[in-house]
Write a structure and sequence with these properties.
Blueprint (H helix, E strand, L loop, with lengths): L3 H6 L1 H4 L5 H10 L1 E5 L5 H11 L3 E5 L24 H12 L4 E5 L5 H9 L3 E4 L4 H14 L3 E7 L2 E7 L8 H4 L10 H4 L3 H20 L8 E6 L4 E6 L13
Parallel strand pairs: 1-2, 1-4, 2-3, 4-5
Antiparallel strand pairs: 5-6, 6-7, 7-8
Helix pairs in contact: 4-5, 4-10, 6-7
Length: 248
């Protein structure tokens, strides 16, 4: 049950009929894994903690660099040199003392990845490379866990939710393992609010999945063009030949 303090703290949520007290209790009971506490993971973690998600698993093996601070808003200047998950925990603790954090300051691989995915309700992919995205996708399909995927580069961003239902597409229905499109902010640059936009949308979809509010963007690719302030949505069909979502 929510305490009196929590009822006050989350009052602007609770007055929303789509969430109300029951939805806020669901948020409190939820466990969410965020992989990557960088440009995307920063707003995701901040908003999920502020919204009252009870337990956040934070996974990132990198340390905070000064060049991160242009967009990774969960980290502060005095956090440079610290592990990103430790830096993020400090911000979360200051924001919401009711949100519990489990820190994973190393790269999740193989059986450990599968174990962590099996322990949570939802996985949020805030990574920056295809290898991690494919591994997360497979683990989510195997454990039947929703995957909220985001990506951003330059002035562009993408959002999609996979594996929400048995007939949903998975990430590998959209991109194949032989895709060689890895780009990064170091080489290509990134406008800081773009990761904020996509990360905020990832947090919003996660809250909707947990509470049952609204319609989730399941198996749909949302493409954001910041230069032209344009959003496009493309339906992602489940691939009958996909080696991942048709195997499990």
């Amino acid at each position: 049950m929510l305490t009196e303090q929590e009822l006050i703290h989350y009052s602007r949520h609770i007055i929303l009929p789509q969430i109300d007290e029951m939805g806020q209790q669901k948020l409190k009971q939820a466990k969410v894994l965020i992989v990557g506490i960088g440009g995307l993971g920063a707003p995701v973690a901040i908003y999920l903690a502020a919204a009252g998600v009870g337990h956040l698993y934070l996974a990132d093996h990198d340390t905070v660099e000064r060049s991160n601070l242009q967009r990774q808003i969960i980290h502060q200047l005095d956090g440079v040199g610290k592990n990103k998950v430790d830096s993020a925990k400090a911000t979360i603790n200051a924001l919401n003392p009711w949100t519990q954090t489990t820190l994973i300051p190393y790269k999740l691989l193989a059986e450990d990845l599968k174990l962590k995915v099996s322990q949570v309700d939802i996985v949020i992919d805030c990574s920056d490379n295809f290898e991690t995205r494919f591994e997360l996708n497979q683990a989510c399909v195997q454990s039947n866990k929703p995957l909220v995927s985001g990506a951003a580069i330059r002035f562009e961003g993408q959002l999609a939710v996979f594996n929400l239902k048995t007939d949903s597409a998975c990430y590998q229905c959209l991109y194949k393992p032989d895709t060689h499109l890895d780009e990064n902010c170091f080489d290509q640059g990134i406008l800081s609010p773009v990761v904020g936009t996509i990360g905020t949308l990832q947090a919003t979809e996660t809250i909707k999945i947990i509470t049952g509010a609204g319609t989730v963007s399941d198996s749909q690719l949302l493409i954001y063009d910041a230069l032209n302030t344009d959003f496009k949505k493309i339906q992602i069909a489940k691939d009958p030949s996909c080696l991942i979502c048709n195997q499990y």
